[in-house]
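PROTEIN DESIGN WORKSHEET
SECTION A - STRUCTURE
LENGTH: 351
TOKENS:
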């Protein structure tokens, strides 16, 4: 039992980390800012995988009555608000900033339990909610990349998350399991987001997306959907094996690595040239239109007549061209490590 709990907990942390970073890569690096299509695709893929798992007997989904489905409909609408607003906010905010604002949803839950349900809440939980509120309130004044629209959607996201959790705890439907609720969420999300794609303009604007026919974009979208589905399953399994306090502890442990790995992963993906324009036969529409910071300017000295190898560069000339040091094995490795460590794009290094 202990080994099973550890395995499920580690799986949850890995899926949590990979899911956020993959979504951030698609939204911010590839600039796929069409939330109705992106979240609709994730809900569709998650629903199909959950349906296949049910048919194979891996999970159990009950055939619910119409009254139960209609009762859960407001929660499904809130779930659509959670994923839509979260996608808009994550595309504009850094992962650590988004997670801090996401945690502030606990303040809404704590306030509801204290003010409306008159529950006895420990002083430690109240202090924790106050710290979360203070951290979220200080962010706009200390964020060097302050984005008003990103914070606007983050506030809507945390409000929807808080109300969604309150509804789940208030109703406590015995006939609807966690898998049943998520299955209904997937169905309503696909329907609502598909209907909203035309009024929001995403349905036709996506035709101008520069990476629409880029295979790395397709694989990233598929990976994000699969990771979201695995995260949902691991969350349900974790909640069934552990107490609510232990689940909250594992969620807390899973969030810091997402913030730490964001910068390194972004630099690694760029250093590997994932966004480098690759023009092949039939790929003329793939263009890199995003502005990137300029790489440091370096000059390449002539070869040493004794050793026959190029000397170390000095700041003078841009290293964007195909010179000797960029094609040299050691220089290529050093440039790649520097790009990964500092998070700069290595699009012009041709590594």
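SECTION B - SEQUENCE
RESIDUE ASSIGNMENT:
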């Amino acid at each position: 039992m202990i080994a099973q709990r550890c395995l499920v907990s580690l799986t949850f942390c890995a899926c949590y980390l990979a899911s956020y970073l993959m979504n951030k890569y698609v939204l911010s690096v590839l600039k796929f800012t069409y939330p109705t299509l992106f979240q609709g695709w994730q809900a569709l893929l998650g629903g199909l995988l959950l349906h296949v798992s049910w048919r194979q007997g891996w999970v159990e989904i009950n055939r619910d009555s119409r009254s139960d489905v209609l009762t859960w409909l407001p929660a499904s609408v809130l779930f659509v608000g959670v994923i839509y607003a979260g996608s808009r906010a994550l595309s504009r905010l850094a992962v650590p900033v988004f997670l801090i604002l996401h945690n502030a949803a606990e303040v809404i839950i704590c306030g509801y339990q204290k003010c409306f349900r008159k529950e006895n809440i420990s002083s430690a939980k109240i202090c924790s909610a106050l710290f979360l509120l203070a951290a979220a309130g200080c962010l706009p004044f200390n964020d060097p990349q302050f984005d008003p629209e990103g914070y606007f959607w983050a506030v809507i996201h945390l409000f929807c998350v808080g109300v969604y959790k309150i509804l789940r705890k208030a109703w406590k439907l015995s006939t609807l399991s966690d898998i049943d609720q998520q299955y209904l969420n997937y169905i309503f999300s696909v329907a609502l987001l598909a209907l909203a794609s035309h009024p929001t303009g995403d349905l036709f604007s996506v035709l101008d997306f520069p990476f629409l026919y880029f295979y790395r974009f397709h694989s990233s979208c598929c990976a994000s959907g699969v990771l979201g589905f695995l995260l949902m399953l691991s969350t349900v399994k974790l909640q069934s094996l552990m107490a609510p306090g232990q689940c909250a502890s594992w969620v807390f442990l899973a969030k810091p690595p997402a913030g730490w790995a964001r910068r390194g992963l972004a630099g690694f993906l760029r250093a590997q040239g994932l966004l480098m324009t690759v023009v092949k036969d039939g790929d003329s529409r793939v263009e890199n239109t995003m502005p990137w910071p300029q790489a440091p300017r370096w000059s390449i000295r002539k070869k040493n007549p004794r050793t026959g190898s190029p000397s170390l560069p000095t700041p003078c000339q841009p290293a964007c061209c195909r010179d000797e040091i960029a094609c040299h094995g050691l220089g290529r490795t050093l440039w790649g490590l520097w790009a990964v460590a500092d998070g700069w794009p290595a699009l012009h290094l041709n590594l």
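SECTION C - NOTES
Strands lie at 297-299, 314-318.
The chain has 13 helices and two strands.
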